[in-house]
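Exercise: predict the fold of this chain.
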Amino acid sequence: MNLSRINLFNFQKKIIVITGSSGYLGSKLVKLYRDLNSTVYEIDFIKPKNFYKKYYYKASVDKNKIFKIIYSIVNKEKKINNLINNGGI
C-alpha cells in the first residue's frame, strides 16, 4: 500500500459525532470539522449558539439516550467516521 497517495487528514464528507458540543472544547471541534467540510452531529443538553437544527440532538450524558441517538445517526448515514466523546468533561 502506497501511503503517499492516502490523505489521512481528509475530513471532507466525513460523518462526525461530538458529545458535549456546546462547551468550549466541543464548540471549537464543531467549528474545525465544519470548516473541513464534514457533516457534524452535535449532542448536548445545552443548545449550542451556532447549530444546524437537523444535526443537533438534545441529551444529557445518559448511556441509553446516547446509544439511541448514535443508532439513529448510523441508520440515517450508514456509518460514523469519528465519534468524539466530549460530554461531561
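Check your answer against the key: The chain has two helices and four strands.
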